[in-house]
# Entry
Amino acid sequence: MGALLLDILLGEPRRWHPLVGFGRLAERLEAYLNRAEGSTHIRGMAALLLVVPFILIAALLEQLFPLIGLVLLYLAIGGRSLVEHARQVASALKAQDLPLSRQRVGWIVSRETNEMQPADVARATVESVLENGSDAIFGAIFWFLVAGAPGVVGYRLVNTLDAMWGYRNTRFQNFGWAAARLDDLLNWLPARLTALSYAATGSFQQALRCWSRQAKQWDSPNAGPVMAAGAGALEIELGGAATYHGEIHQRPTLGCGEAPDAEAIERAITLVRNSLLLWVAVIVVGGWLLA
# Structure
């Protein structure tokens, strides 16, 4: 797939990334609409107000320039960037530089990192690799295959809004609910295909066992299967306590085995890459059979 090759060769654009610009636009819209006196339903519909025009633009561009879908998928997946950031954390852990590893993991997770120990840093990094593998790679590919350029644009923008607005706190409870619900809906099938891919390219029985027993305990209906299956496939233990915005959250334990370390980060990267190869093989064979 051309978009995957572009991502491998070029990585994410260093400047003028469309998702960065979209994020800034979302911040401005939230500051304008998310007011206490506004209607809950109107505030909740902000996600559609922001995403639908870009879907329509993508549909028009695809009609005018058929190859634009390849470019948009390349901009959506971000696989190389994910690997690079994860490996930077792993290298700091291998060098036993805890302050640097805390700083680097803070670039890819939203939880607080100041008090993290090495196992906490590795755990957060592996969780990010597994979950973002589902969101930024497999989910984007799935919706591109289903609906072309409009599909991948709509999916990735909703996913971005969920990351920005999907918090269950006072500020976003009545504003980000539509983004969170849409993201759950769009990710339902891709997340389960990702979990199955992790199982198929890792410890299969452990992955399925952890998925079936542990996924429902997680607060996200889609991250649960992905991370439980991924942890089982890697035979490591994820979850546990994490601090968000000054509050300690006691999360369920996922997976089985030892606490993750720097080597587990590398194995998580390999798991995502092998799963991607599996997807490519299935897509190529499926295309050949349908041709």
